[in-house]
Amino acid sequence: MENNDLSSRKTDHIKLAFEAQAQGLDERFYYEPVLHAHPEQGVIPALQFSGKILKAPLWISSMTGGAQLAGNINRNLALACKNFGLGMGLGSCRSLLTSNDYFHDFAIRKFMGDQPLYANLGIAQIEEMLALNKFDKIGDLVHKLEADGLIIHVNPLQEWLQPEGDRIAKPPIDTIKRMLDLADFPIMVKEVGQGFGPKSLQALAELPLEAIEFGASGGTNFSLLENLRRDEFFQEQFAPVAQLGHNANEMLNWAKELCQNPQNKVHTRAFIVSGGIKNFLDGYYFVQSLPWKTLYAQASAFLKHAMCSEDELMKFTEKQIRGLELAYTFLTVKK
């Protein structure tokens, strides 16, 4: 049997040799093959986030699958978090401010176990609720979902391009500061596909946020998505707007400067790098490059598999963890 296996493997090598030519090196890492054996489970350092333990620095970023799909998607994602010790943010919970019709689609704590779970509202909805002195509705939403905190997504370009978009009347930083004064739960702030410029990133980092999620350019571009919903004339005129923003590498460098300069007052507890993260090597690179508590996040990759089946999502997540184990064992980031 062993000889047959060996023969089969050698035959595979011959057949695949021409397809397996080097395609270029990933020059972000030093590869050290002689210093460690193959990794065992547990090689990834656990970290504390929002008062709970993550078994890997991987966050499932906020997303939505539409009213008919959201419940099953959220359930599958919650189960993946429980099984692999991850955390996640819900898609926009705006509808729950006025109706409980879709509450069961978001009420996934029973599937999550004790992993970090965050509710999610847009800056326009937060601004509106505070203007109407209805902060209690926001607090009730967070507590009703048994969430650990709230994500505020800041998306002025998306709202401006969206046909039904809301108008933001105040600088978001002022609304976020007021929320921090009122809330008895942790708050994260994220962008949705354009990222934050250096002044915005610094202004946020000076606040006692649980995390800042980059939401950088490189993944789903929701401004572009909304522009594609407009009439042809509008699309043509405002197409350049959807291409504004910053990628994760740009934001990484600004975040490094913030954290390494002792004159800066960085009070945010963590950064979550998202936007254009294609695989676990991208994630590992960002986590290891920033001298602060750092996670990486993916949305569309998890959404794709969560829409198919629970089994497929578990297989995908397991491969992400196995890949991270390899990275933590054999790779160091070139500084």
Tell me what you see in this structure:
- With 335 residues, this protein is an alpha/beta fold.
- The protein has helices at residues 2-16, 67-84, 103-106, 109-112, 123-131, 135-144, 156-161, 172-182, 198-205, 222-227, 232-238, 248-260, 280-289, 300-308, 310-330, and strands spanning 29-31, 47-49, 52-54, 58-60, 87-89, 117-122, 149-153, 187-190, 211-213, 271-273, 294-298, 331-333.
- The strands form three sheets. The protein has an eight-stranded parallel beta barrel, surrounded by six helices. A two-stranded antiparallel sheet has the order 1-12. Strands 2-3 form a two-stranded antiparallel sheet.
- A hairpin with a 2-residue loop joins strand 2 and strand 3.
- Helix 9 packs across helix 12 (248-260).
- The model has no long low-confidence stretch (mean pLDDT 91).
